[in-house]
Amino acid sequence: MEAILILLFVIGYLSITLEHPLKLDKTVPALLMAALMWALLSIGFHKGWFSVIDGYGNVFNVNSGDLHQQEHGFEGLLLHHIGKVAEILIFLIGAMTIVELIDLHRGFDVLKDMVKTKSKIRLLWITGIVGFILSAVIDNLTATIVLISLLRKLIQNREERIWYASLIVIATNAGGAWSPIGDVTTTMLWIAKKVSAGGLSEYIVIPAIICFIVPYALASRMKIFKGQIEIDETTHEERERLLSSKTMLWLGLSAIVFVPIFKTLTHLPPYVGMMLSLAVVWLVSEYIHPEDNFDKSRKHLYSANKALSRIEISSILFFLGILMAVAALESLVFGSINGQEVGTLRYAAESISNAIPSMDVVIILLGALSAVIDNVPLVAASMGMYTFEMDHSIWHFIAYSAGTGGSMLIIGSAAGVAAMGMEKIDFIWYLKKITWLAFAGFISGALVFLFIEHYIR
Predict the structure, then answer these.
(1) What's residue 444's pLDDT?
(2) Which of 165-179, 229-243, 287-301 has the highest mean pLDDT?
(3) Considering the chain, what percentage of its residues have pLDDT values greater than 90?
(4) What b/e string do you get for 129-165 counting C-beta neighbours within 10 Å, with b at 16 or more?
(5) Percent composition of the chain: helix, strand, coil (DSSP 3-state, to 5)
(6) How far apart are CA 193 and CA 166, in angstroms?
(7) What residues does 332 pair with on adjacent strands?
(8) Ranges 120-134, 241-255, 409-423: which has the least confidence
(9) pLDDT digit string (tens) for 398-430?
(10) Which residues pair with 49 in a beta bridge?
């Protein structure tokens, strides 16, 4: 029966990976997989076929001990996992709402208007640096969307623009990897107390900078980035200014950055800080006047309710499905190590460690794999596989590899998929032109991380 549960996970995982050929939103297999796995786990547990294990190593089986106590243990296990997943989802909903509020008030146009250059190389580095920094504050997906929108204002030639867009994917993924709010995977590790905000930044910022600089330095020598940009002045007119743009931009960004500070001061989970930040931004949005002679009949166009309606709920439900499916695997007792029963993922981790003794090699391979398979389930699985203490170098290396490895393929990260959709970037074109640049950055940053870890710290 254990094999059937694992098979369900494999089939669901493949369905998620083959989202585009199947023309099926990956949320559907994720939710199906999670629900069916927990249903099978529950039936098997109550029939006495399975044992389950919680995060503290307590094993529950209806054939041993008090039946009521064992059933209560299973219920507590499910509530524990749904609670941990809810922390991540509440955090993401809060962050997404703040970002959408900024966008409703045209706050990101303030950043777009700061870029005033016709030099191709200068524009390359400006957009890269802005993407690297911005992704650490708002997240790599949103930063990519903002910067590609900027490129559309500046570069009319699509053949040139897709080069810039592709390199922005590398920059934003690198920038998101060293921030607890820059990528979904780093947020997961932070909320799960695998890394601290300070530790993540301290250990990963230098490798992330290298991961960004190396491909940009190589690209700067390419012919495509030589010369001046030809700007069509007729398409460069200003949009109508909003009185609230600057206020909402800086307030929103400050509110998101405040979350790690709030956690440090109060020792409360990050989602509580995000609730506070969202409440403050929402409060200001209720009373601020975006326009001169602001009519209350237009208030709904700039409201938090409007922002909430623009959130990708399908993404939230995908995270719910995949994280609960991984939790089911983590909870299923599959075997024993040194006489102690362990869950499926922990057993898999021990098997991999025996096959490949070097953890550094394993994590580099995980980074390469994240270009093919969604990095969210990969990181979720690794969280269930390993029991290293908070801020162990392994967690930092996992955060770096999963965050930046996805740049090697256009479908390997949320930022890449967004760029692919906005600019219709061809998979094969990216593979031929950009993958080697992304790989050079990824492996350079990984080697710098290992050098610092093994020879300096």
Answers:
(1) 95
(2) 165-179
(3) 23
(4) ebbbebbbbbbbbbbbbbbbebbbbbbeeeebbbbbb
(5) 75, 5, 25
(6) 33
(7) 52
(8) 409-423
(9) 999 988 998 998 877 878 877 877 787 887 888
(10) none
Position 129 confidence tier, pLDDT thresholds 50, 70, 90: very high
Residue identified by tokens 């869950």 is 343
Neighbour-count burial of 399, counting CB atoms closer than 10 A to its CB (0-12 exposed, 13-18 middle, 19+ buried): buried
Mean pLDDT across 21-50? 89
Predicted structure pTM score: 0.75
- Asked whether the CA dihedral 212, 134, 396, 370 is positive or negative, the reply is negative
In terms of C-beta density within 10 A (0-12 exposed, 13-18 middle, 19 or more buried), how is residue 339 classed? exposed
Question: Are the C-beta atoms of residues 16 and 30 closer than 8 Å to each other?
Answer: yes
Q: For position 232, what pLDDT does the model report?
A: 52
Three-class SS state of 442? helix
Q: Beta 333-337 vs 59-60: how paired, if at all?
A: unpaired
- DSSP run (H or E) holding 314: helix 313-331
* Six-digit token string for 94: 């809060």
Nearest to 242 by CA among 100, 110, 98: 110
What's the token pair of residue 119? 């030099």
> What are the pLDDT digits (tens) for 151-177?
877 888 888 889 999 999 999 999 999
**Beta-strand runs (E) in 217-368:** 333-337, 340-343
- The residues that bridge with 333 in the sheet, in sequence order, are 343
pLDDT at residue 399, as a whole number: 92
Residue 22 and residue 15 in contact, taking contact as beta carbons nearer than 8 Å: yes
**What are the two backbone dihedrals, phi and then psi, of residue 250, each rounded to the nearest 5 degrees?**
-70, -35
Q: Which residues of 176-193 are buried (b: 16+ CB within 10 A; e: fewer)?
A: bbbbbbbbbbbbbbbbbe
Report d(CA 270, CA 115) in Å as an integer. 33
